Model the fold of this input.
Amino acid sequence: MSIAGEVWVDVCDILDIPVRGARIVKSPLGCIALFRTADDAVFALDDKCPHKAGPLSQGIVHGRSVTCPLHNWVISLETGEAQGADTGRTRHHKVRLVDGRVQLLMSNNETCAA
Amino acid sequence: MSKKKLVVIGNGMAPGRVLDELFAKDGSLYDVTIFNAEPRVNYDRIMLSPVLSGEKCFDDIIIHDDDWYAAHNVTLHKGKRVSAIDREEGCVVAEDGTKAFYDKLLIATGSSPIVVPIPGHDLNGVITYRDLDDVDRMLAYAEKGGRAVVIGGGLLGLEAAAGLRMRGMEVTVLHLMPSLMERQLDEAAGHLLEKAITERGINVITKANSKEILGTTHVTGVRLEDGTEIAADLVCMAVGIRPNTELAANSGLDAGRGILVNDQMQTSDPNIFAVGECVEHRGQCYGLVAPLYEMAKVIAQQLAYASEAIYEGSVTSTKLKVTGVDLFSAGDFADADGREEIVFRDAAQGVYKRLVLEDNRIVGVVLYGDTVDGAWFFQQMKDQTDVSDVRDTLIFGPAYAGGGAVDPMAAVAALPDNTEICGCNGVCKGTILSAISATGLSSVDDVRAQTKASSSCGTCTPLVEKLLALSLGDDFDAGTVKPMCACTDFSHEEVRRVIVAQELKSLHDVLQTLEWKTSCGCAKCRPALNYYLLCAWPDDYADDAQSRFINERAHANIQKDGTFSVVPRMWGGMTTPDELRAIADVADKFEIPTVKVTGGQRIDLLGVKKHDLPDVWRDLNAAGLVSGHAYAKGLRTVKTCVGTDWCRFGTQDSTGLGIRLEKFLWGSWTPHKVKLAVSGCPRNCAEATCKDFGVVCVDSGYEIHFAGAAGMHVKATERLCNVTSEEEVIEYIGALMQMYREQAAYLDRVYKWADKVGIDHIREVIVDDHDARRGYYDRFVHSQRLMQIDPWAERAAGKQAHEFTPIAVENAGALVS
Done:
């Protein structure tokens, strides 16, 4: 069931993302990092660390967090929030799994940046 | 006045402690001579189990090293057994005739393991568990794998079983009684323990009456009374100990089960004291360390001042040292009239706590699964505190009993000063705190040296650390036992040892076995573990790309804008017009914005888009250029000068040797980056003396250097040795590289590792020990056979394509709802 204005876009198979890893998705919303955790949960964040815009998709995924490759900030995959002493937040996106396919929510009113 | 003579028979933990205490009071009173039947220095016998399991090594458990004996002018006769005490003459005589006169004599002959005299008990492969020789014997068996039977399900038997299991043997424990450790545990806790032991893959048979050990010359199995036969290559007898009284009894001293002593710890001869497991005091013999240390304290005072200090017996507590099994017990917990009990059970969490009360005072404590409050309960028990007021919440420990906070720091802060923190050494919280503030202690090692707390079995180390943290606040650094990261309490060195000792060959195995606190580690420990596994098992371990930092995963260096830099290898800093042309072409074709000459004599292409990397590499490969590993914790560059090829001062072919070294070393993964240089003469144009490994050519051959640094830390190298041929240079540096690979903590550069293990030690191994050097060299060569594959060529051919390919989604055409 979808709410008016909600558009889910089919992105890839969950198997296309390495376990404890990430893929970059070039979308109308900009570059999005798509993560898969050890327990096969999928998360999506803007591919930008709140610190110095480091590409989070290139970080090491552990538990429900990713460590930014530039300066080791740890970002929550669930909220996009910086963990520990650091503060800042990366925009997170809604994703869902349907029969092993990863779908990303695109709101119609977002502007396209890519 | 001449010094009095003190002779000590035995060199275990108890007499060692007497001497520590005595020297602390006054080191000038006695000339001390020790006779030790074992051929070594005083070590921590309680820690044999972690040595057996591979979590510690012998050096970790030495209490007094050779320097200690020298510093205190103690004569130590290693490997000399005393055969007689001549009380008339006042001297002792060893088997080899060595004689020593005494004014005071201290007998510390300890105890012997009991060997059940069933048929077959004298076969080869039947081993008791008492000293380091026993551990060595067991390890020799464990190396071959196979099956072990441990007779005895008490403290020692279970620790032996767990150790042998961790070393990879199939283990069965035979226990005569219906439940394990029945002397320390009640039945419920015994059952939980049995479950935990079984879950470790150890077979437990209770009510097992061993009838016969089978075999003709060597053990083949054990037969029980009911006819059951269990196959075995090794039988470990751990049924108990018997005080060694023979020497004392033969000298006419009174002995019962042990050597009889009074409250002053004197035997029936007032000039002869006895201490430790060999004594019987008020009808009690002790096999745990805490009472021995209490005795030691009294004897030291007697020896120093003939004081009125007396020993009145000990209340003991027990902890099992099997990693992952938390168990604490103290006192008496048999059912009796007038006794009540408070029990807490959480089967799902595997927690069981039982307090036995008599007249509103704790007389027995059994804790299983959660033992943090053990010290506090034990203190209440020893103090005979009336607990009626806090009875309702007593079982939840001090945090609730006083209504205090539950945070562990607050709980430690709330403990009264007389709470015993270190059970082995009887050290209270107040003693530790005042030592910290009075003498400015800042590490656990300092506290150990000053107060003895945490210096024996080590289970109270976390408490001591919390006390340091309480006193010093942010200034406290956990120091030597620094855990790898917040996911574990194990240090890098401990983890490496366990990976090898227990043959852990996957990340999953390591996280499980060492009980990682997080589901899959963190960005600090995962790359380290991946490296340790790769180094230990080059044939078997499959590299985990997701546990590598992006640079090593993508085989290029990430830049601040998310683009990458690419550095092809230029062997020994040499290049050709064709290579340079190929690099120029690639820079043009892929619009690479920056081309830079590096400090390591190569060319860096900066600002390459990630999705272009495989294509860039394909073009470079076509010109014969391969990965320079500028991104790797591995061999980076071998910088050279032109040597005898061109230079009028050159003494050897430094360029050729540099290329040879680079071709030999490239592709290996190491704890941190490794940079080399070869200079053709002592003018050292290649700056070889600030590299991880360096070679300076001289007329007579080659000076090999190591452990330099020129980064955040600047340090000149140490000279390893001089050799005369290029072949030797290759062998020595290959061996050194492998020693560094096998020993260093992840992210320790060579100089840091060398600092930790000692420059001299490295020289002894690599230069003086031919076999050790060959061993390291051969292992390096073997590993290189598997590692020298150009990662760029693999990826240009499509390996890990997902790493370099973004997913594109469009709004139109892909809509679902």
